[in-house]
Amino acid sequence: MRSENNDKDMTSFLEGLRSISIEGLEEIGKGGNGTVYRLDPETIVKVYYGDRNTVEKINHNREVTKSVFVQGIPTTIAFDMVRVGDNYGVVYEMIDAKSLSHEIVANPDKLEYYANLIADTLKTLHSTEFEKGTLPNAKEAAYRDVKAIYDCGVIDSSEVDILHKMIDNVPDRYTFIHQDFHPGNIMLQKGEPVLIDVEDAGLGHPVFDLSSMYLVYVTAAHVGNKGFEGISAKQFDIIWDLVMKRYFGTTDDKKIADLNRVLLAYSRIKYLRGVATSPRVPKLLRKTVPKFIKKKVINDAKTISIADSELLMGL
Q1: Tens digit of pLDDT for each residue in 55-109?
Q2: How far is CA 35 from the centre of its chain?
Q3: Which of 44, 146, 262, 314 is most buried by its number of CB atoms within 10 A?
Q4: Is the pLDDT of residue 300 over 70?
């Protein structure tokens, strides 16, 4: 009976949504879950890809955004959920803003300035402590990634244990982490950064944020050497190197290389889950590529040492 009532409530909720058209609207950002458009001078709309986001997840994302805003994180104000053709979206307040990715493309001579902005914003976020339970635990999300990989038959139970130990080695923290912190999700409003796509935000150690960034700034940017959102792979290399040096306060190439090695290792868990489970990855690749990546993931997990854990303690 409860299931039937929930279905009726959801049907009623969907019937009450207003419909909007994105025809002719300016695209101001794009990510793995959807595309952001300028709806009018004071609002934007994020249209979610229907094959990757359920209605329940989209509405949950809207509520998370409200919660994060209330906690003082510089993010957009979430308004209503809308129907956009066969997909759904969420309308946000955003006056006179452009995505950082657009700004980087338009001003390639200011890469150092934008890299410093990214690093400084990240450090501010990572110094913001929340009460336990306010947002989802990032470690739990990492464990779910491992379970999803296991459920696909890519790894066995002994390999699950190896990956769990790697996650267990990450020190517990209740720091705010965005977990999708790329230039398309950072808006500049009068020169100040405002975050969008905070639905994956959680609490945890900065390694979870930085490894997710590594997946975009390094791994994804070099797929076919095409870059991302108009930013070239070479530009991403420059930005990432500058971000790492400013964030960690060092120009020691050996230390930066060690940090990148650790971030690569943790990023590969999320990467493996994406390749193994995403409906956007061709079926043939989902059968072959994960096995190749798995060897690297398991080898990483086995070689992450106590010294690496101590390195993480410094974050």
Answers
A1: 887 877 788 888 888 888 888 888 888 999 989 988 988 767 888 998 999 999 9
A2: 14
A3: 44
A4: yes
- Residue 313's pLDDT band, with cuts at 50, 70 and 90, is low
Angle of the 206-214 helix axis to the 138-151 helix axis, nearest 10: 50
Residue type, 259: L
What is the set of domains in the chain, with CATH numbers? 2-95 (3.30.200.20), 98-313 (3.90.1200.10)
Distance separating alpha carbons of residues 152 and 273, to the nearest angstrom: 9
Give the bridge partners for 90, in sequence order.
46, 81
**Please, what is the average pLDDT of the chain?**
86
With residue 187 as reference, give the H or E element that holds it.
Answer: strand 186-189
Task: Decide if 97 contacts 40 (C-beta within 8 A).
Answer: no
Model confidence, pTM: 0.85
CB contact set of 287 (below 8 Å; sequence gap of 6+): none
Structure tokens at 73: 């994180």
**Which amino acid is present at 63?**
E
- Asked whether residue 23 carries a pLDDT value surpassing 90, the answer given is yes
Strand partners, 29: 36
Cα 307 off chain centre by = 27
Q: Distance (Å, rounded) from C-alpha 31 to C-alpha 49?
A: 10
Instruction: Dump pLDDT digits (tens) for 229-277.
Output: 789 999 999 999 999 999 999 999 999 998 999 999 999 999 999 888 8
The first and second tokens of residue 123, run together, are 């450090």
